[in-house]
């Protein structure tokens, strides 16, 4: 039994082709998506000739979109973006920054970027600076810097690491030297 079928696209389909292309797709994809929605049909010479004008318009539209994307990428490269998020006192976010958050912030700045074009290197769950990769086409890419900042003033005093001796007792370090008069009074009070 054949697993694939050849179809003629009657509409542009993302990641598949444009009007007038003859594509080889899985039967399930054809039966469940392309054929019911009218995106494809059985290929014939008459249909290919009928779709020639529509194909020329689609190619022109794609060329215009390509020019717009190239211009956007040249402006987007090196852009800095700041997002303000709620977090705890250690800088951990209560939620995470998603592709959707970054794409909508870029749209607010005038860049037509969809969430699927935002490539996150890792899950963003803390206050920090991140390098984000934007890929709008196979050869159109840009890198932006994302600053995730707290929505309030954080008290991030870097505490010193605790040290323990061989018996597991905490070693107390004096940060400030106490005056000489205060030291004997403190020592006599401990005994």
Structure, described:
The protein is α+β, with helices and mostly antiparallel strands and 191 residues long. Among the domains are: 4-50, Ribosomal Protein L9, domain 1; 73-150, Roll (Ribosomal Protein L9, domain 2), CATH 3.10.430. It is built from 5 helices and 11 strands; from the N terminus they run E-E-H-E-H-H-E-E-H-E-E-E-E-E-E-H. The protein has helices spanning 27-34, 45-50, 52-76, 99-108, 182-190, and strands at residues 4-9, 22-26, 40-41, 80-85, 92-97, 118-119, 124-126, 128-137, 140-150, 163-164, 170-171. A 4-stranded mixed sheet has the order 4-9-8-6. A 3-stranded antiparallel sheet has the order 2-1-3. Strand 8 and strand 9 form a beta hairpin. The radius of gyration is 30 Å and the shape is elongated. The N and C termini lie far apart (91 Å). Residues 185-191 have low confidence and may be disordered.
Gist?
The chain is α+β, with helices and mostly antiparallel strands and 191 residues long. It has helices at residues 27-34, 45-50, 52-76, 99-108, 182-190; strands spanning 4-9, 22-26, 40-41, 80-85, 92-97, 118-119, 124-126, 128-137, 140-150, 163-164, 170-171.
Task: Based on the model shown, name its key terms.
single chain; 191 residues; alpha+beta; Ribosomal Protein L9, domain 1; Ribosomal Protein L9, domain 2; 4-stranded mixed beta sheet; 3-stranded antiparallel beta sheet; 11 strands; disordered C terminus
């Amino acid at each position: 039994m054949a697993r694939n079928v050849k179809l003629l696209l009657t509409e542009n389909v993302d990641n598949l082709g444009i009007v007038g292309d003859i594509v080889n797709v899985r039967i399930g994809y054809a039966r469940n998506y392309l054929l019911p929605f009218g995106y494809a049909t059985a290929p014939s010479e008459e249909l290919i000739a009928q779709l020639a004008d529509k194909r020329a318009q689609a190619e022109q539209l794609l060329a215009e979109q390509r020019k717009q994307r190239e211009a956007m990428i040249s402006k987007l490269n090196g852009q800095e973006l700041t997002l303000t998020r709620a977090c705890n006192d250690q800088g951990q976010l209560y939620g995470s920054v998603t592709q959707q958050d970054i794409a909508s912030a870029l749209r607010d700045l005038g860049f037509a970027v969809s969430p699927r074009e935002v490539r996150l290197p890792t899950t963003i769950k803390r206050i920090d600076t991140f390098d984000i990769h934007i890929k709008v086409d196979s050869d159109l890419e840009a890198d932006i810097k994302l600053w995730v900042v707290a929505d309030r003033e954080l008290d991030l005093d870097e505490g010193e690491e605790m040290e323990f001796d061989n018996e597991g007792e905490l070693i107390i370090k004096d940060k400030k030297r106490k005056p000489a008069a205060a030291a004997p009074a403190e020592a006599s009070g401990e005994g």
